[in-house]
UniProtKB/TrEMBL annotation:
It comes from the Bacteria. This is DMSO/TMAO reductase YedYZ molybdopterin-dependent catalytic subunit. Pfam families: Mo-co_dimer, Oxidored_molyb. Residues 94-263 form the Oxidoreductase molybdopterin-binding domain.
Length: 407
């Protein structure tokens, strides 16, 4: 199938010999081992290359596939390449092939008429494009202290892409939303591994779903979606955590009452406190569904404990994002936060995108130093100096610190 300049595989097949064959730890086909610097360990992970449409990735889990982007990838550009874009599924039963000709997107529920759209029908709607960061709610969970259960990600369960697709609003209008609609529930082709397992579904309030920014993508970075990243259609909820970005989207249900399914009422909830922060063991806290992202920034060209020459300028660079809005400024400190220097911001690709930054620094005193980086977004929200904590390991956005050796 071809539409515009885009040519789609008629059948996109995952094409590997079976996820069941992939060992969970240090498989024989692993190319190398990386250390993620997780406090208390274990922090060794395999670098693997045999997942289809994927280059070298950090293997966090094989069933379901959880693949982390090697951090050095973020130094190569503002957009994360598709073959190294992180992967996270909730159930091990994921689509291993999709026939484009037979695929349908259903829209039903509290609507005037149920519709079943082919991929061609969807792509005939007005085309939109947006750069946006996709970040797992638990990105950096492995850095929480005390440690919490769940995938022990370092900082690589995030990525930035230019998404191409259609507005969710336009798809909903094909069915006609009835008065009294409250939420829109999104479901994909993945399935629970046990009969009574809760199907993975996420919901957005009706006004959010129809705001014109939430979109259904059929391409990322100018190419069709990799199957592991949600081919053929993926929901894009700019500024919100990735749990809402339903992959292999196949079903849209308009609801006339709030969704109380497991993935909205129980899972992916956060303390209703500033920075979703509570003390370990604290109970009786009101919990709410996770929602908007918060600002973060990273140094990408200086590794921990890297040697920097004394008295010689060093160009430090990295990426930042504002969460649910744009980046206002990025500041760097080399004196433990006593003073901060403003970095030069790179090209603005849109308020939901990564934004590159750079700053020349000259460190004169030899010895151990710490470089700290912080982002302030256009709403004035700034990264906190102290890390948050919650039992799910969500929403880490503390000021990042990188130790260096000046010699």
């Amino acid at each position: 199938m071809s539409i515009g300049n885009m040519v789609f595989d008629r059948r996109r097949v995952l094409g590997y010999s079976g996820l069941a064959l992939l060992a969970a730890s240090r498989p024989a086909w692993a190319q190398s081992i990386v250390r993620l610097g997780l406090p208390g360990g274990p922090d060794e992970r395999s670098i693997v290359t045999n997942f289809p449409h994927k280059g070298p990735m950090i293997l966090q889990r094989s069933r379901p596939p959880l693949l982390e982007t090697p951090f050095e990838v973020f130094d190569k550009g503002v957009f994360t390449p598709n073959d190294q874009f992180y992967v996270r599924w909730h159930w091990a039963v994921i689509p291993t092939e999709v026939d484009v000709d037979k695929f349908r997107l259903a829209v039903h529920g509290h609507v005037n008429q149920t519709v079943s759209l082919s991929l061609k029908d969807v792509m005939a709607l007005p085309r939109v494009e947006m750069a946006a960061v996709n970040q797992c709610s638990g990105n950096s969970r492995g850095l929480f202290e005390p440690r919490v259960p769940g995938a022990q990600w370092a900082n690589g369960s995030m990525g930035n892409a230019k998404w191409t697709g259609v507005r969710l609003k336009d798809v909903l209008d094909r069915a006609g939303v009835k008065s009294g609609a409250v939420q829109v529930r999104l479901n994909g082709l993945d399935e629970p591994v046990v009969p009574d397992g809760p199907d993975f579904m996420k919901s957005l309030d009706i006004d959010h779903a129809r705001d014109g920014e939430v979109m259904i993508a059929y391409a990322m970075n100018g190419e069709q979606l990799p199957l592991l990243n949600g081919f053929p259609l993926r929901l894009i909820v700019p500024g919100w955590y990735a749990t809402y970005w339903v992959k292999a989207l196949s079903d849209i249900e308009v609801l006339d009452k709030p969704d109380d399914n497991f993935w909205m009422k129980t899972a992916y909830t956060i303390p209703d406190t500033p920075h979703a922060d509570i003390k370990p063991g604290q109970t009786g806290v009101k919990m709410v569904p996770i929602n908007k992202m918060v600002p973060r920034s990273f140094i990408t060209n200086v590794a921990p404990n890297q040697k920097l020459p004394a008295g010689t300028p060093t160009q430090v660079r990295g990426i930042a994002f504002g969460g649910d809005t744009g980046v206002a400024k990025v500041d760097l400190s080399s004196d433990d936060g006593k003073s901060w220097q403003a970095a030069k911001l790179g090209k603005d690709e849109g308020k939901y995108s990564f934004r590159q930054w750079e700053l020349p620094i000259t460190l004169t005193d030899k010895g151990n130093k710490t470089l700290m980086i912080r982002c302030t977004n256009t709403d004035g929200d700034i990264q906190p100096a102290q890390p948050n904590w919650n039992p799910s390991g969500f929403m880490r956005n503390v000021i990042e610190a990188t130790s260096v050796i000046v010699s």
